[in-house]
Amino acid sequence: MRISSLVTYPVKGCAGVALNSASVSATGLEHDRAFMIVDDDGAFRSQRSDPVLAVVRCSMTDGALTLEHASAGSMTVSVDRDSAPRDITMFRAPMRGIDQGDEVAAWLTEVIGEPSRLVAAPRGHGRVTDGISPGSAQFADSAAVHILSTATLAGLNSRLDIALPMDRFRPNIVVDGWEEPHREDEVREVGIGSARLAYTKLAIRCAVTTVEQTTGERGGPEPLRTLATYRRARQKGVAFGAKFSVLQNGTVSIGDELHVETWGASEL
């Protein structure tokens, strides 16, 4: 089993950035979900309500974040990780984020069509995530690292009339080499490159999987309708992929082998 793709998502909900190699810290791949877009009340925005975020591209260079959109052009902001944070919420849970200023807020408001602001996770964010092996994360939904295998996607696509690409599911690490789908569900501790990860929970899927990532448009009921026929989870919802916390910081690269240290039964 080897890594075939690595993707980090600097701004929660926006397009991912493909990497050949990535440093891994307690909060996941470098820059992953370090930023989040919020509304006037400080509640987070995502593709669930704002699918246009899928076509907002982003990149990080030398302490600056650049956002790009086909019609709105680009916006570069010098990242502020040290000012006083403000109150925000994600899934109604209270958090803190550092506002990145009025200029980028106006740009995002134009793109989304609703009042929006950009916040960054403060240094020492300290967010603790739950699951079998609790860990940390910046603004990721539920854990630092999301792993999905090509075999798992192939199993779904064999049931669909129109095959879906991997980007519908927004994984951080794509694994190739397992013959059977959903083997990632059974991994408990794994070494990849110089990093070590531990399973936290199944990845419960939402309406983001119905958004076409290249257009920012929501489609029909797939893949949720088909997943509901064979991937209903005890945690409520449908499961596809697995979430992991970071046991040991390190570096991972495309082509790295997975060395599974312990296995367990699927929670499905």
Describe this structure in words.
The protein has 268 residues and is mainly beta. It contains three helices and 22 strands. An eight-stranded mixed β-sheet has the order 2-1-15-14-20-17-16-22. The relative contact order is 0.20. The mean pLDDT is 96.
Termini Cα gap:
22 Å
Q: Give the averaged pLDDT, no decimals.
A: 96
Question: What helical percentage do the residues reach?
Answer: under 10%
What's the total helix number? 3
> Using only CA atoms, what is the Rg?
18 Å
Percent in strands:
35-45%
Which structural category fits the helices and strands? mainly beta
Shape: globular
How many E strands?
Answer: 22
Q: Main beta sheet, described?
A: 8 strands, mixed
The SSE order reads: EEEEEEEEEEHEEEEHEEEEEHEEE
Enumerate the strands of the largest sheet in spatial order, edge to edge or round the barrel: 2-1-15-14-20-17-16-22
From the structure provided, what is the oligomeric state, counting identical versus distinct chains? Answer: single chain
What topology does this entry show?
Elements: E1 2-8, E2 17-19, E3 21-25, E4 28-29, E5 35-38, E6 57-61, E7 64-69, E8 73-78, E9 86-90, E10 93-99, H1 102-112, E11 117-120, E12 128-129, E13 135-136, E14 145-149, H2 150-157, E15 173-176, E16 187-192, E17 195-204, E18 211-212, E19 217-218, H3 224-227, E20 239-248, E21 250-253, E22 258-263
Parallel strand pairs: 14-15
Antiparallel strand pairs: 1-2, 1-15, 3-4, 3-21, 5-11, 6-7, 7-8, 9-10, 10-11, 12-13, 14-20, 16-17, 16-22, 17-20, 18-19
